[in-house]
Amino acid sequence: MLRNVMAGAAAAAILIGMSSGAAEARSRYTSYDDCRRDSRNDQAAGAIIGGILGGVVGNQVFKGERGLGTVAGVILGGVAGSQIARSGDACDQYYASYAYNDAFERDPYDRVEWRNPRSGNYGYVTPADYYRDRRGNYCRNYEQEIYINGRRQVAEGVACQNRDGSWRIVQ
């Protein structure tokens, strides 16, 4: 079970990196050829995001030993996030950010694919139906399937719409 949780946390780390960098990617990159970043920064960001997500997941999963679960989650999530960022092409985020934002605007269960022709990495996102959260925001559950260097990662999450109409991944 911990293995599945960590795989989900690692995949979520990719998504959070993609969602937070989506607007930046669209404004900075006009084509694939312009898609360049320092991979060390991506790896550090992956470790930080993975560590945060891993800590949150570990805290929730190990209810009897929350401290231990949080520490284990931070360590495993940080390592997984760093490895995923290292193994992925920097332009994966460029392609995926468009796919995720597009998917959240589509009909429920309409699967959207992204593919990076240079790295060969690809993925799918499938949004569920809209609902309102307790704050009144429009949200959607989604499923994702990501293939990085041929390794399959599957996770589920929640995205909610901001006031400006953009989407953010909240879980």
Summarize the structure.
This protein has 171 residues and is α+β, with helices and mostly antiparallel strands.
Annotate the secondary structure layout.
Blueprint: H1 2-28, H2 39-61, H3 66-87, H4 91-105, E1 112-115, E2 122-132, E3 138-148, E4 151-161, E5 167-169
Antiparallel strand pairs: 1-2, 2-3, 3-4, 4-5
Commentary on this structure:
With 171 residues, this protein is an alpha+beta fold. It has one domain. The protein has helices at residues 2-28, 39-61, 66-87, 91-105; strands at 112-115, 122-132, 138-148, 151-161, 167-169. A five-stranded antiparallel beta sheet has the order 1-2-3-4-5. Strand 2 (122-132) and strand 3 form a beta hairpin. It starts with a helix and ends with a strand.
Count structural domains.
1
What is the element string, with H for helices and E for strands? HHHHEEEEE
Coarse shape: globular
Whole-number mean pLDDT:
73
- Rg is 16 Å
Strand order of the largest sheet: 1-2-3-4-5
- What's the helix count? 4
- The total strand number stands at 5
CA(first)-CA(last) distance = 18 Å
* Beta-strand residue fraction: 15-25%
The helical percent reads 40-55%
Q: Can you tell me the residue ranges where pLDDT is under 50 for at least 5 consecutive residues?
A: 1-7, 18-32
Strand count, sense and barrel status of the largest sheet are: 5 strands, antiparallel
Computed structural class: alpha+beta
Offer a few descriptive terms.
171 residues; 5-stranded antiparallel beta sheet; disordered N terminus
